[in-house]
Amino acid sequence: MDKQPKSKKPEESDPDHPYSIPGWDDMLEEAFSAYKGTYIAGRVAAQHKTVCDILIPGAMVQAAISGAMRRIGKQPVVGDFVVLLDQAELSSYTIVDILPRKTCLARGSPGDSSEEQVIAANINTIFIVTAVGKDLNLRRLERYLTIVHSSGAKPVILVNKIDLADDPEQVIEETKEIAGDVPVIAISALSKDGLEALIPYINTDETVALIGSSGVGKSTLINAFFGEDLQKTNDVREDDDKGKHTTTVRQLFLLPNGGIFIDNPGIREIQLGDSSEGIDRTFSDIADLSNSCRFKDCTHHNEPHCAVRNAVQNGLITQERFDSYHKLMNEAAFQSEKAEIGLKRLEKKKYKGLSQTARKYREYTGK
Ligand SMILES: Nc1nc2c(ncn2[C@@H]2O[C@H](COP(=O)(O)OP(=O)(O)OP(=O)(O)O)[C@@H](O)[C@H]2O)c(=O)[nH]1
Ligand SMILES: [Zn+2]
């Protein structure tokens, strides 16, 4: 491949250069260099039905999705880096392509609809927020870990309301037991204790998001950490010529220290999709033990000489964690099947998205 020379990072304020787009890097620069002509790059800050709010160097504009993209079902989501056709003569912008996504947060769609829904793209770190008390549910955490691992983003577990814990250390220990190598951080969004530990994850040009159940303190944390006036700090110069004024709530925020924060209801209410790969990473203890099962494709149900079931019997893995694993595998297999049926309906020849693990699991269990 013809390698483009790496361009030097210019001043952040240079409105003519895509480096002023939050999160822009050399890889994107290289992908974008394939577009010659009146194209500019931007990042999706919010999605609406037919248009998106796009951050371009020095301004925020609205752009429609090209007919060609709509026909093939290519839908930009918040966080995407996109290529815009700059039609100065029409005072408008059109999104003509999406630059390669580094991470992709998706959920299994509810009801009968078959396709996985991408909610946000290019998030580097996802804070999984949980809280001391009845909200601290390890099984639910495993579910969130699976979702984040599947997205490609880096998970970090925040145990909020630590001020309510009788024995904070024990709470953290319990959480660490299911976390693998994922960092576990105790915080109190209310008293702002422990928030400094989050700073390293919000480096310049990193994109972060948070997920967690209702009531764990996500809003309190956003206000405590990112500031009450997040919306204000995100004020960008309006492009008078081409930009239309938008009154809708933005979903991508620029943080005062240079980081980028993405928040929308879709991220907050995320469900498990076909994430069998994420399950393997969340349950790496089970995945490791699987190598010692007699059958290579052991599903750890009834097969003889199953190292995983042995570990459960010997107390190395708790019954609750084992059940949680099976529950998530069942759901992932169900999502896979739903996706497959949907795609057959669309008469697609091949579906690569179905993960092998989930397929085997479904064949074996008949679920
Ligand atoms: N004791 C204590 N209470 C907290 C802490 N953080 C949040 N809360 C309280 O928990 C309740 C829920 O907090 P929210 O920030 O609204 O929770 P949320 O996750 O945004 O909830 P949804 O908006 O439903 O998703 C509020 O009453 C907060 O004051 C904390 O660190 N300690
Ligand atoms: Zn087994």
Task: Give an overview of the whole structure.
The chain has 367 residues and is of the alpha/beta class. It has three domains: 18-98, Nucleic acid-binding proteins (OB fold (Dihydrolipoamide Acetyltransferase, E2P)); 104-242 and 253-268, 3-Layer(aba) Sandwich (Rossmann fold), CATH 3.40.50.300; 276-365, Orthogonal Bundle (Ribonucleotide Reductase Protein R1, domain 1), CATH 1.10.40. Helices cover 31% and strands 20% of the residues. The strands form three sheets. It has a six-stranded mixed β-sheet. Helix 3 (138-151) packs across helix 8 (276-282) and helix 11 (319-345) packs across helix 12. It is globular. The two termini are 45 Å apart. The model is unreliable at 1-12, 109-114, 231-248 and 346-354 (pLDDT under 50). The structure holds guanosine-5'-triphosphate (GTP) and zinc ion (ZN). Pfam families: RsgA_GTPase. Residues 115-270 form the CP-type G domain. Residues 1-21 are annotated as: Disordered. InterPro entries: G_CP_dom (IPR030378), NA-bd_OB-fold (IPR012340), P-loop_NTPase (IPR027417), Ribosome_biogen_GTPase_RsgA (IPR004881), RsgA_GTPase_dom (IPR010914). Its main location: cytoplasm.
Descriptive tags:
single chain, 367 residues, alpha/beta, OB fold (Dihydrolipoamide Acetyltransferase, E2P), Rossmann fold, Ribonucleotide Reductase Protein R1, domain 1, 3 domains, 6-stranded mixed β-sheet, 5-stranded mixed barrel, 12 helices, binds guanosine-5'-triphosphate, binds zinc ion
